[in-house]
Amino acid sequence: MSIEIKVPKLPESVADATLVKWHKKPGDAVARDENLADLETDKVVLEVPAPVAGVLKEVKVNAGATVTSDQLLAIVEAGGVAAGATAGAAPSAAKAAAASAAVEAPKAAKVSPAARRAAEEKGVDPASIAPSGRAGVVTKADVQQARAAAPAVSAASPASGGTGPSRVERRVPMTRLRARIAERLVTAQSTQALLSTFNEVDLLAVQQLRARHKDRFEKVNGVKLGFSSFFVRATVEALKKYPVINAAVDGGDVVYREFYDVGVAVSTERGLVVPVLRDADLLSFAQIEQAVADFATRARSGSLTMEDLTGGTFSITNGGVFGSLLSTPIVNFPQSAILGMHKIQDRPVVVDGQIVVRPMMYLALSYDHRIIDGKEAVQFLVSIKEALEDPARLLLGV
Fold this sequence. Notes:
Blueprint: E1 2-6, E2 17-22, E3 29-30, E4 35-40, E5 45-49, E6 54-59, E7 66-67, E8 72-78, H1 91-103, E9 110-111, H2 113-122, E10 137-138, H3 140-149, H4 176-191, E11 194-202, H5 204-221, H6 228-241, E12 248-250, E13 253-255, E14 262-264, E15 266-268, E16 271-273, E17 276-277, H7 285-301, H8 306-309, E18 314-318, E19 337-341, E20 345-351, E21 354-368, H9 374-389, H10 392-396
Parallel strand pairs: 9-10, 14-18, 18-19
Antiparallel strand pairs: 1-8, 2-4, 2-7, 3-6, 4-5, 6-8, 11-21, 12-13, 14-17, 15-16, 19-21, 20-21
């Protein structure tokens, strides 16, 4: 029986996708749920799984083509025998083989889309990599580790008579995600009146609170108590006080949102993605930490969904994890503001007339000056600063 393989239903915000690569060719045997092809959208890489075991009979769309929802991609013959099977096999043997395939074909090693792309770029065979992901999935981290462990190969420069480094350059097409990031950043810069304001926060109280309760917190909730939950909660409280920071420009109108969907930027090999914490004001510290940890894991394995990345009323980005001391983040268009966190660094500060060493962090707020005045931007940062320097405010709502 012939089975049609179609493009999965794409969200309304995504018009089309690019068929990046076929992992099977006509005549190849396929296992049920085995990935046949990768589709790249503006935000995520989608897999096209085989619905049945059998043989890939025909490919309708070539790699590199642009496809839309429900477009026919290929035909799979359910229970078919691969073209490479022995032609002279007895009918009974062929029938047994077909029946076996129909029941359950052997499954190939599961490789996440992000890991497969990284393996292609680094020249690593994913089949040779031991998986560390859930359910035996080869992750991008596995590919990077395998590449780092591989022996280095030096190439001699012909002009130098066999000595010295070679001069090599590679031209790689920009991925749809990177192109989309570039487009959004340029749009934000060209359509918004962007301005940044700064402040610094003393994180001693947060560090002391974490030190007292982190073990118990992890035991009860099954997740570590990090800084993310404190910053998200402090941000939400500040957004409630200064609602224009949570607003957006729509033509000649200002749209005020009375809900708080906070995007948390995550850096991946393919580029920056911003999964969204829905109704962040209703989440507990533990729920925020669990969600952020899950986002980071799935972002790096390439398994975030379109729903994870859609929407958002405000964003937080943390350059401090890479050592950044200060930056001016660009607003995640069409939002109107973004909070930048940075490296926590012990610095001398004056407290009650005394010079003391405290764990300090610079905060940056980039915002659309068309609707947000400097006064509101500064007060917003001060609100976050006060909440973090006295975390009891987050529990008391003051």
